[in-house]
Design a protein that fits this description.
353 residues; alpha/beta; 7-stranded mixed beta sheet; 5-stranded mixed beta sheet; 16 strands; 22% strand; globular
Length: 353
């Protein structure tokens, strides 16, 4: 079992990974080994809100949404609610969000109100509720955490003013601007998400602690393993996350990030196509235009360092990591490949918090 090194954290810390399907958390307590820390798994807020909308649809009740715009599962459930001829109320902040799907903004069944209309089901749309997790910890007999760290998806970010879209990695532009120097890993926990990354901005406004995108947290989660960081100190390596919907990878060498790429998990060329992309990626030959055409992106610190020796080692984690058995080195903190993001939050906080 690979044990992460998260330094000497002195007080209770709650690290939460908010995905589209589920949210995972580690309640870190000082003085307890990493493998014995409390871990939790709950449905994602998006999934829970969508289920409540579908229940209201079945009961023929209107719904009132507040707290944020409907995305993903919620938007789909809401479309079905409107198609059933049922009413939808929204708080003005929700209805006026730039992330509100265009198909909903002008719908005849939508009414905007600062209060929930009588008989409607109020549903809060937020990726993080500051009361839920501390209350859950209290029920489990744990102390109130002094620090709450959150990583979240942010699939609603529109292209920036130059037209380039880096939806999975807010620091991609800073990386490209390093001109071969690479981006220091200690920058990632404190990278202020650009204003267009609305989900991360909203969470940061609640927690008041650093908020990370899931891509950055995954990179730090793998890097928290001494076997990985030690290898990256001697030669460059590819850190790869095989998710259910996305494949994400980073080029890391001597505490610096030199490249990132993201693409859909299902590729028309299957595993051979992914391996071909990884070979091009580790050499800096993966064309951003090609990735954008396939629904992904790539960014590099050009030129890549020659002494990184082509970033040959490949460390793999994530839900679908087994697809690369025999092709890379399986590496997950405490043997749990679904908790890398949480460990990345803790690693970043312990080193540079």
């Amino acid at each position: 079992m690979l044990i992460p090194d998260v330094g000497d954290i002195q007080s209770p810390v709650l690290a939460i990974d908010v995905g589209s399907e589920a949210q995972r958390a580690i309640f870190y307590m000082p003085g307890i080994g990493a493998e014995d820390q409390c871990r939790f798994l709950m449905p994602s807020p998006e999934r829970t809100a969508a289920a409540r909308i579908r229940q209201s649809t079945a009961e023929r009740r209107g719904v009132y949404l507040h707290g944020g715009p409907p995305r993903g599962r919620v938007a789909g459930a809401l479309a079905g609610h409107l198609e059933a001829g049922l009413d939808v109320g929204m708080h003005p902040d929700t209805a006026g969000s730039p992330a509100l799907p265009p198909s909903l903004s002008g719908h005849a069944g939508l009414c905007v109100s600062r209060v929930c209309p009588p008989g409607f089901t109020p549903i809060a749309l937020r990726d993080f509720d500051p009361d839920v997790w501390p209350a859950f910890a209290s029920l489990a007999g744990l102390p109130r955490p002094e620090t709450i760290l959150v990583a979240a998806v942010h699939d609603d970010a529109p292209p920036d003013e130059s037209g380039d879209a880096f939806p999975g990695f807010p620091a991609a532009r800073q990386l490209a601007e390093t001109r071969g120097a690479g981006l220091e890993l200690r920058f990632l926990p404190h990278c202020s998400p650009p204003g267009r990354f609305l989900r991360l901005q909203a969470i940061r406004g609640i927690t008041k602690f650093p908020v990370m995108d899931r891509f950055s947290a995954f990179l730090l989660g793998l890097y928290s393993l001494p076997a990985v960081s030690g290898r990256c100190g001697r030669e460059g390596a590819v850190l790869l996350h095989m998710g259910a919907h996305k494949v994400r990878a980073g080029l890391v060498y001597r505490d610096r990030l030199f490249g990132v790429f993201e693409r859909p998990a299902v590729h028309r060329d299957g595993v051979p196509g992914l391996l071909a992309d990884l070979d091009s990626f580790r050499l800096g030959w993966l064309a951003p235009e090609k990735m954008r055409a396939e629904g992904g992106y790539a960014a590099f610190a050009d030129p890549l360092p020659a002494d990184a020796e082509g970033f040959r080692p490949l460390f793999v984690t994530g839900r679908r990591a087994e697809l690369l058995n025999g092709r890379g080195i399986m590496a997950s903190p405490c043997g749990d490949r679904m908790m890398s993001v949480c460990w990345g939050l803790l690693y970043g906080w312990s080193r540079w918090g």
